[in-house]
Specification:
Blueprint (H helix, E strand, L loop, with lengths): L2 E10 L2 E11 L4 E5 L6 H9 L6 E6 L2 E2 L10 E5 L10 H11 L4 H14 L15 H14 L4 E5 L7 H18 L2 E6 L2 H7 L2 E6 L2 E6 L1 H6 L4 H6 L4 E3 L2 E3 L4 E4 L6 E11 L2 E8 L6 E5 H7 L6 E6 L4
Parallel strand pairs: 3-8, 3-9, 6-7, 7-8
Antiparallel strand pairs: 1-2, 1-4, 4-5, 9-10, 11-12, 13-17, 14-15, 14-17, 15-16
The structure holds adenosine-5'-diphosphate (ADP) and magnesium ion.
Adenosine-5'-diphosphate binds next to α1.
Length: about 325
C-alpha cells in the first residue's frame, strides 16, 4: 500500500526533529530511510506507526488518513533493533501472538504460523525458545511476528543493528528475497549506506529532520543533489578543489598536462586499494582502485606520479 506523508513535523522542546517532511512511498516498494544518527529517522517511522503523534502534517496509507488512528488499527507490522521476544513462549507462539490477540480461530493461527516459520526458515526451530536462537534467528522470528497479522505496511527500524557483520549481510539478502516474494510495502531505517544501497529500490536521505534527496540508489550515487548526499553515499575526495569520487581518479606516469605529485601512502583493504597522493598544488586526494590495477601500476610510497580524472566510458 502506498504511504503519503505530507508536511509531517515533530518537535521536542520546540526543536523540529522531523521538519515538514512531504514524501510519497510507492506501493510494494522497499524504501530505505538512510541518515546519520539523530537525523530523525526513528521519529519519522514512529509517526507512520502511530507511536508518536505529529505536531503537524498527515499520514495517509492507501488513501486512508490514519493520522488520528490508534496504532493497533493501522495494520502495520514493526520490527525494531531491540525487539524483546516473549521468553516463556516458543518460536511458534511468539509468531502467532498478534493473531491470538486478534482472536483468530486456532486453525487459522496454526496454518499462518506454519507458513511463516517456513518463509523465515525457522521450521526446524518452531518449538525452540528465544534463548535457544542465534541473534539472526531471533530477528527472523521478529520479522515473522510482524508479518503474521498480514500488515499493509512493514516498518523495520535498524533491525540488524545489533548483529555481527556476516549475519547482517546474510539477513540483508534474505530481506530482499523475502520482499520479492511477498511485496508488502516496506520501510527500512538504517544508518548503514551499504545496507541501504544493497537492499532498497528507493532511498530517502535524511539529514537534520528533512529529506535531503529521494531516488533510486544509483541516481543518488551518480547525481547527488547536495554535498551532504555526496559525502554520505559513498567515498569522496577533493581534486582541483572539487569533490569527486576517488574511483573517478586515475594515477598515470608523470607527463605534461596533468597534475603531478608523489605517492604518500598506500592502504590495501583486500580487493580494494586506497592510494593517497601529495600533489604539486599541496592537495592530498586519494585514489581508489582494484588490487589488480594497483599491482600493474607498480608504485610505492615516494614514487613520482601524475593524476587525472578517468575518462568516462
Ligand atoms: P535517528 O533515529 O535518526 O537516530 P531519532 O528520530 O531517534 O533519530 O531522534 C532525532 C532527534 O530527536 C534526536 O536529537 C533525539 O535526541 C531527539 N528525540 C527523539 N525522541 C525524543 C523524545 N522522546 N524526547 C526528546 N527528544 C527526542
Ligand atoms: Mg533511530
Amino acid at each position: 500500500m502506498s504511504i503519503s506523508l505530507s508536511h509531517l513535523t515533530k518537535r521536542y522542546a520546540s526543536v523540529a526533529v522531523v521538519d515538514d517532511v512531504t514524501v510519497e512511498i510507492p506501493e510494494g516498494s522497499l524504501t530505505a530511510i538512510l541518515g546519520p544518527s539523530g537525523s530523525g529517522k526513528s521519529t519519522l517511522l514512529k509517526m507512520i506507526a502511530g507511536l508518536e503523534m505529529p505536531d503537524e502534517g498527515r499520514v495517509v496509507i492507501e488513501g486512508d488518513d490514519v493520522t488520528d488512528v490508534d496504532p493497533r488499527f493501522r495494520d502495520i507490522g514493526f520490527c525494531f533493533q531491540h525487539y524483546a521476544p516473549f521468553r516463556h513462549m516458543n518460536v511458534a507462539k511468539n509468531i502467532g501472538f498478534g493473531l491470538r490477540v486478534r482472536k483468530q480461530p486456532k486453525a487459522v493461527i496454526a496454518a499462518k504460523v506454519s507458513e511463516l516459520v517456513e518463509l523465515v526458515k525457522l521450521d526446524n526451530k518452531a518449538l525452540s525458545y528465544p534463548s535457544q536462537l542465534s541473534g539472526g534467528e531471533r530477528q527472523r522470528m521478529a520479522l515473522a511476528r510482524a508479518l503474521a497479522i498480514e500488515p499493509r505496511v512493514l516498518l523495520l527500524d535498524e533491525p540488524f543493528g545489533a548483529l555481527d557483520a556476516i549475519v547482517r549481510t546474510e539477513l540483508r539478502h534474505w530481506v530482499k528475497e523475502l520482499h520479492r516474494q511477498i511485496k508488502v510495502t516496506t520501510i527500512l531505517v538504517t544508518h548503514d549506506q551499504d545496507e541501504a544501497m544493497e537492499v532498497a529500490d528507493q532511498l530517502l536521505i535524511m539529514h537534520s529532520g528533512t529529506i535531503e534527496q529521494a531516488g533510486n540508489p544509483s541516481e543518488l550515487y551518480d547525481a547527488p543533489a547536495t554535498d551532504f548526499v555526496h559525502g554520505f553515499l559513498g567515498p569522496t575526495t577533493v581534486f582541483k578543489g572539487v569533490v569527486v569520487r576517488p574511483h573517478d581518479l586515475e594515477i598515470v606516469s608523470p607527463s605534461s598536462g596533468v597534475m603531478e605529485g608523489v605517492v604518500t601512502s598506500i592502504m590495501e583493504l583486500g580487493f580494494e586499494v586506497q592510494v593517497t597522493l601529495t600533489l604539486s598544488d599541496g592537495s592530498m586526494p586519494w585514489v581508489q582502485m582494484s588490487r589488480n590495477e594497483f599491482r600493474s601500476l607498480g608504485v610505492a610510497p615516494g614514487a613520482p606520479i601524475a593524476v587525472r580524472e578517468r575518462v568516462a566510458l
